Amino acid sequence: MNRPPSYTRRRWLGHGSALLAAATAGAPWRPAFAEGRPEQLRIGYQKSASLFVHQKSVGSLEKRLAPLGVAVKWFEFPAGPQLLEGLNVGAIDVGYVGEAPPIFAQAAGARFVYIGYDPAAPQAEAVVVPKDSALKTVADLKGRKVALNKGSNVHYLLVKLLEKHGLSYADVQPVFLPPADARAAFERGAVDAWAIWDPFLAAVEKQTGARQLADGRGVVNNYLFYLAERGYAERWPQVVKALFDDLGEQGRWVTANVRQAAEKIAPLQGLDVDVVERSLRRYPLGVQPLTPAIAAEQQKIADAFLELKLLPRPVRILDALPAARLAGAA
């Protein structure tokens, strides 16, 4: 069995360093601002961040930030934990991740704030098995190998699904792999199941006939979060507001034009249009500022990971909210 993640600061910063170097090749490592104004907004995104991918494809954020003299740079990461590493070491200024990565990152001392979230998307993540697998229920996973990205949103999904079906996290053998490696292991039968999110979920379902044992409905919320490096957010709120406004505007367009949006996004994600469309329909968009209620939901996840000894120390989610939001949380 793989050992559970022990996210001390040193080990966490070392995790995925090669992936980080590849994702940020050519990235400027000087501060992202010049005297009096920021030079750029560096955005970390994943294939699952379809709204960011859409914004990148149409250049809407570049147009919005041009009057401020701010350039936009885009850097792709394989998953949330690697993206958070990039945020922590100063390679990017903002990013978009699932529920778990910010918790592990905060436990490791990363300096960021939650700047927004999208509505719950429990159908956008699931545990899948090959179409001809003998496994029929989550309870059948006892003693089996389950691939997942360490510290990602599906880490919590797996914990809660096992709990719901009378198993503990210790009852399975987690195999920690990023999505591309997990897909390869899944297809060659090196693992029995895969806990994964969209669009990778939609792709493996359509392309291999993979079956869901369960998705997140009735078990997890699967909120998606927009994060910013704390210093950047505090120094350049006008840039963060422009990003937030553009996310709202483009999110409304994607929601009203799902098929057309999928056709724009698919080439950049390297996926079939039908796969991207299926994924978009499982990810409701509608960015909102983080509230104390949503922070409380995050706190439940942090407490669950601490109880499982997956975190090195307690995490207080409210410490990662912008000061303006804390007034309503006292």
TrEMBL record:
<comment type="function">
    <text>Part of a binding-protein-dependent transport system for aliphatic sulfonates. Putative binding protein.</text>
</comment>
<dbReference type="InterPro" id="IPR001638">
    <property type="entry name" value="Solute-binding_3/MltF_N"/>
</dbReference>
<dbReference type="InterPro" id="IPR010067">
    <property type="entry name" value="ABC_SsuA_sub-bd"/>
</dbReference>
<comment type="similarity">
    <text>Belongs to the bacterial solute-binding protein SsuA/TauA family.</text>
</comment>
<dbReference type="GO" id="GO:0016020">
    <property type="term" value="C:membrane"/>
</dbReference>
<keyword id="KW-0813">Transport</keyword>
<protein>
    <recommendedName>
        <fullName>Putative aliphatic sulfonates-binding protein</fullName>
    </recommendedName>
</protein>
<dbReference type="Pfam" id="PF13379">
    <property type="entry name" value="NMT1_2"/>
</dbReference>
<dbReference type="GO" id="GO:0042626">
    <property type="term" value="F:ATPase-coupled transmembrane transporter activity"/>
</dbReference>
<dbReference type="InterPro" id="IPR006311">
    <property type="entry name" value="TAT_signal"/>
</dbReference>
<keyword id="KW-0732">Signal</keyword>
<feature type="domain" description="Solute-binding protein family 3/N-terminal">
    <location>
        <begin position="40"/>
        <end position="257"/>
    </location>
</feature>
